[in-house]
Each structure stands twice: as structure tokens, then as C-alpha cells.
Specification:
Desulfoferrodoxin_N_sf, Rubrerythrin, domain 2, about 0% helix, two-stranded antiparallel ribbon, electron transport, mainly beta
């Protein structure tokens, strides 16, 4: 899923890492070889 706005939160279904977007640069967040899941 592409990052689209500041404040979005993503998590990794494999290891549980969580990321909060502070700067939008496009692209997809990846962790443990899989796309991260948007939570909010």
C-alpha cells in the first residue's frame, strides 16, 4: 500500500514493527519482505 499522508500508521504482520509516517515520499513500506499493513 502506498504512503499517502502524514499521520498514517502501518504495522508488520510478521514481526509486529509499527511505523508512523512523518514525511510523505511515496512508495510502499516493506518489513520482513512483505508490504506493511495500514492501520489508521
Amino acid at each position: 500500500m502506498a504512503v499517502t499522508k502524514i499521520g498514517e500508521k502501518y504495522y508488520c504482520a510478521v514481526c509486529g514493527n509499527e511505523v508512523a509516517v512523518t514525511k510523505v515520499g511515496g512508495g510502499t513500506l516493506v518489513c520482513c519482505g512483505q508490504a506493511m499493513i495500514l492501520t489508521t
